[in-house]
Amino acid sequence: MKYLAIFVLALIAFSQVEAKEVEAGLDLCPTCVSFATQSIDQLLNIILNAGVIGGCADLCGYLPNKVEQTVCDLLCDYVGLELFIKLIKEADLDPIYLCELITVCPIHDCEGECITIDEINIVPPSGPAGTEFAIEMAFTVHNQTGTGEIVIDIFPPDGEPFGDGELTEGYAPGKYGIRFGLKTEPTEDEPYSAGTYGVELGVCEGQCGSKHPHSYVYDVKKSSFQITE
Fold first, then answer.
1. Please, what's the b/e burial string for 57-75 (b: 16 or more CB within 10 A of its CB; e: otherwise)?
2. What residues have CB less than 8 Å from 5, skipping those under 6 apart?
């Protein structure tokens, strides 16, 4: 699956109920997940190959990017070096699960009926390459959820699927919506040839497809749009 930075995301306020935050005024969850998505594989390799690591600054100093080093140091100091290394190994390349283990992302295993996708609406339903398609999803939250993601996958008629995802930190009961704007300007990676493009949207607890605790799929729905000659 290719992940291309071609989506413009907007949350639609169908409800006055807002997503839960870790703490008022301090929310490390998105920072942690973004960092782990970029760096967890590098950190595993560092841990396996670096030999003796004296402290958090030593471990994080191996990362190539100064911003990554700073976030790594913050999270490592938060739990301590020994536990940080243990949790990185335990997370097994799952960024959301790692940040739940570090306790900066909220865990709330939903009970009973959790989330139902009500509808997917794509506007316009067809258009030539270069059209920006608005892909909107309305969903109902029946019971409080924890950290997870909303994912979108596009299936071209003659190429590799590609997609994107949006972190969520849990929803209280209510009605919500999300909009992905897909710009179909042809590129070397995706020429946007004429044909039918399948669209699949899913809402998950944890990372979609993960086998770790606190990870499962709430609902998935499919739709499509046409790119004309």
1. eebbebbeeeebbebbbbb
2. 164
Assigned token pair, 64? 């190539």
97-120 per-position pLDDT tens digit: 999 999 999 999 998 999 999 999
- For the chain, how many residues are written? 229
Q: Alpha carbon of 89 to those of 41, 78, 92, 217, 225: distances in Å?
A: 10, 17, 6, 24, 41
The model's pLDDT over 6-26, given as tens digits with 9 standing for 90+, comes to 555 444 433 333 333 333 345
Q: What is the DSSP letter of 92?
A: T
The two most distant CA atoms of the chain are separated, in Å, by 61
Euclidean distance between CA atoms 60 and 49, whole angstroms? 14
Q: List CB contacts of 184: < 8 A, sequence separation 6 or more.
A: 127, 129, 130, 131, 132, 133, 192, 227
